[in-house]
Amino acid sequence: QLQVSESGGGLVQAGDSLRLSCAISGQPFNGYVVGWFRQAPGKEREFVAAMSWIGKKTTYGDSAQGRFTISRDYPKDTAYLQMNSLKPEDTAVYYCAATYRGTSTTPNGFDYWGQGTQVTVSS
Fold first, then answer.
1. Are 63 and 43 in contact (CB under 8 A)?
2. Are 83 and 63 in contact (CB under 8 A)?
3. Nearest one of 67, 98, 92 to 81, comparing CA atoms
4. Which helix (H) or strand (E) segment is 92 a member of?
5. Which residues lie across from 28 on neighbouring strands?
6. Are 33 and 103 in contact (CB under 8 A)?
7. Is the Cβ–Cβ distance between 23 and 45 less than 8 Å?
8. What is the DSSP letter of 107?
9. 9/7 Cα distance (integer angstroms)
10. What is the pLDDT of residue 56?
11. 3-class secondary-structure state, position 26
């Protein structure tokens, strides 16, 4: 059973950058995929980015392309989401998730979830 914990959210202005962190604990073994999702009030949870274990392959959602970067520190079992050129429409709760089932872009494809961290972008 993995535990997932996000940090790094906050209030920023449009155009600013922010880096979210995701710590994985619970004695993870090699092979899990890490993903980032976000959910704005009244909207469905949206895929942001994911990174595999094998090949360190990255996948991005449309809203993240060109502005967000996912990375991992494998020895530390930590993942990051670097967000640049933030826009007010990026305001949401950001969730980190993990799975051993392979890369997915849907919430149902992930088994372990953090509590989320709020990101608010003011105009």
1. no
2. no
3. 67
4. strand 92-99
5. none
6. yes
7. no
8. G
9. 6
10. 85
11. coil
CB atoms under 10 Å from CB of 43, counted, come to 9
Provide the residue type at 39 as one letter: Q
Tens digit of each residue's pLDDT (9 = 90 or more) over 68-120: 999 999 899 999 999 999 999 999 999 999 999 998 999 999 999 999 999 99
- Give me the amino acid identity at 3: Q
Give me the phi and psi of 3, to 5 degrees please: -110, 140
In order, the DSSP letters of 37-86 are EEE-TTS--EEEEEE-SGGG-EEE-TTTTTTEEEEEETTTTEEEEEE-S-
End-to-end CA, the chain: 40
Residue appearing with tokens 């469905």: 44
Both tokens of 117, joined, read 């961290």
Question: What single DSSP character describes residue 29?
Answer: -
How do residues 16-68 score in pLDDT, each as one tens digit?
999 999 999 998 888 899 999 999 999 999 999 999 987 789 999 999 999 99
- Rounded Cα distance between 32 and 78, Å, is 12
